[in-house]
Amino acid sequence: MSYLGLRSKKVAIVGAGAIGTNTAKLLAKAGVGSITLIDRDFIELKNLQRQTLFTKKDVGMPKAIVAKKKLKELNSKTKINAIVADLNYKNASLLSSNLVLDCTDNFETRFLINDYCKKNGVSWVYAAVIRNIGTVYNIIPDNACFRCIFNNHSSLETCDTAGVSNTAVVKTSSLQASEAIKILLKKKYEKNMVRINKQQLIKLKVKKNRDCKSCKGDYEYLTGKKGSKVLKLCGTNTYQVKGKPINLKLLMKKLKGNVKNFDYCIHFNKITLFKDGRAIIKANSSEKAKSIYSRIIG
Fold first, then answer.
1. Both 200 and 256 in a single domain?
2. Residues 22, 26, 29, CA angle at the centre, nearest 5°?
3. What is the CA radius of gyration of the chain?
4. Is residue 224 part of a domain?
5. How far is CA 17 from CA 86, 143, 289, in A?
6. 252 burial class (0-12, 13-18, 19+ CB within 10 angstroms)?
7. 80 and 196 in one domain?
8. How many structural domains comprise the chain?
9. Count of alpha carbons within 13 angstroms of residue 135, beta-carbon side
């Protein structure tokens, strides 16, 4: 298969964690012309086991920024745009590309991606790993969308509750990258949902849901009708709390202790604060996370 056609293609990858960094490496090596990396998180020591693009010296740095540097070392010709942000209905235009790759850790973001791609006629590839099971599904305009399949996500397992196999991550990202290349080059792609369970590849047929709101043009997540102010992230006791824009310079003067300034955000104790009012907080519960946020921000 000739990869020359990839030079003119732009891919948006949401999530620079285990799957995202592996998929990004494969696409950069394949010669994709432009990759936009969108991630809201920072590198922690516990990430290094599965997120092999990072090393100990990267701990504390934004995943997207570090990933950009490492990917440029792999292929200097690929344009890498690193965005440290929470993807939401206000900035969903960041997804503008030939293909969107979902490498996120939560269903709310996936529903947003689905709404954006459905409305704009953009294909995207869903990829996820829970325990030792990987799942990949190509979501093409006019075919069954993500919300046709996953309508209620409140009871679904997460990588935090069930754990993630390193081997499953590698296999899943490899399949996602392979399918992405096929779609970008307009080659024959897999139309079924694929489950990777150890050495088995299980293909599952999916059908459109007549009652799917996204297929009917009701984009609840893209318009902001649906969405949480507090999200449980894929990490032990890690929450994202959304608030109003913050003047970080003024806040730094008020805080007492070791405050790290990353220009677009600051890190203080167990909380990382962004200019847009978003915060990533280490806490034992969502209520505790909100309490910490209120105590610092007001």
1. no
2. 135
3. 19
4. no
5. 14, 28, 22
6. middle
7. yes
8. 2
9. 15
Per DSSP, the three-state class of 238 is strand
What CA–CA distance (Å, rounded) separates 230 from 180? 32
The verdict on 153 and 49 lying in the same domain is yes
> Average pLDDT for residues 200-215, to the nearest whole number?
95
Q: Which domain holds residue 252?
A: 230-297
Q: What percent of the chain has pLDDT over 90?
A: 56
Lookup: tokens for 176: 């996602």
pLDDT for res 211: 95
DSSP-H helix ranges across 185-247 = none
pLDDT of residue 109: 93
Are 238 and 272 within one domain? yes
Q: What amino acid occupies position 216?
A: K
Is residue 222 in some structural domain? no
Average pLDDT value for the chain: 89
Structure tokens at 95: 């997804």
Contacts of residues 65-69 at CB distance under 8 Å and 24 or more positions apart, as own/partner, are 67/16, 67/20, 67/21, 67/24, 67/37, 67/39, 68/37
- Separation of alpha carbons 3 and 189, rounded Å: 15
Q: Are residues 200 and 235 in the same domain?
A: no
In this model, does residue 156 exceed pLDDT 60?
A: no
Report the alpha-carbon distance of residue 79 to residue 95 in Å, rounded. Answer: 15
